[in-house]
Amino acid sequence: MGTIVPVFENSVATELTIGRSSVRRRILALLMAEPDQRLHLREIQRRVRTSPGTASRELALLVAAGLAERQAEGHQVYFRATSSPFATMVRTLLFVPALPGPDPMPIQPTSVATAPEPIRPPRTIRAAGPAQEGTPRPDALGLKVAGRLAEVLRPLYADRLAGIFLHGVRVRGEVRPDAEVEVVIVLDTIAHYGEELERTSATCAGLSLEFGLIVSRIFVAESTWESRTDGHLLAIRSEAVAV
């Protein structure tokens, strides 16, 4: 097996294709969060909160990099994430597959400054249910890496954090040494999904490099985590282990 490049933020490819542009990152996060949908240029511009000209320029760079594709129908132009190997790798390392259901990046009006909210008591949110007898236990390395991530996220998010869970192959048994560490981060609300990815990117990059494996994360709003009973999220909740 060749050398793993665990995080694209530090690679030449990403510096050229994604770079330091927060708008480009938000557009890419939006497209990869909805890989089966085509989005009109103005819809993308509105949802990432930028001008049509900036959105068009950043989309052109993503198309040139093979991360997005452009489709014209008459006078209308649509964009979607590609399924190229490079795009799949970026999605796996940085963005992970989106959960089915409502838009994970709803744009909400920016509120004016208000008095701080009272501190809420610690949550006791859990996974879908207790483990059944014979269910594989999470491996020690997965718990260690997820625990290290949790140590950083708890003070970062404070009372916004509803729970951190390990899921995926590292809770199912028969784990390869280089298997991915998959984490679900449950927040009170998620206003801008791409911003949460950027906020935790450096931490996941450091852990990926330290342990020589991929550390990925999914953000889920607390109400969705507690109420959704269908699709991919139900499968994640059924195996998730709190850290």
Indicate the topology:
Blueprint: H1 12-17, H2 22-33, E1 39-40, H3 41-48, H4 52-64, E2 68-73, E3 76-81, H5 85-95, H6 140-157, E4 161-167, E5 181-187, H7 193-211, E6 215-221, H8 222-227, H9 231-239, E7 241-242
Parallel strand pairs: 5-6
Antiparallel strand pairs: 1-3, 2-3, 4-5, 4-7
Helix pairs in contact: 2-3, 2-4, 2-7, 3-4, 6-7
Q: Segments where pLDDT lies below 50 for 5+ residues?
A: 1-17, 95-122, 128-133
Question: What is the SS-derived class?
Answer: alpha+beta
Strand content: 15-25%
The tally of helices reads: 9
Order of helices and strands: HHEHHEEHHEEHEHHE
- Tell me the count of domains: 2
The CATH class of the largest domain is identified as: Alpha Beta
In round numbers, the mean pLDDT is: 74
Distance between the termini: 30 Å
The main β sheet shows up as:
4 strands, mixed
Count of DSSP strands: 7
Overall shape: globular
Q: For the record, what is the CATH homologous superfamily label of the largest domain? A: Beta Polymerase, domain 2
Strand order of the largest sheet: 6-5-4-7
Q: Rg to the nearest angstrom?
A: 19 Å
The CATH topology of the largest domain is Beta Polymerase, domain 2
CATH architecture field of the largest domain:
2-Layer Sandwich
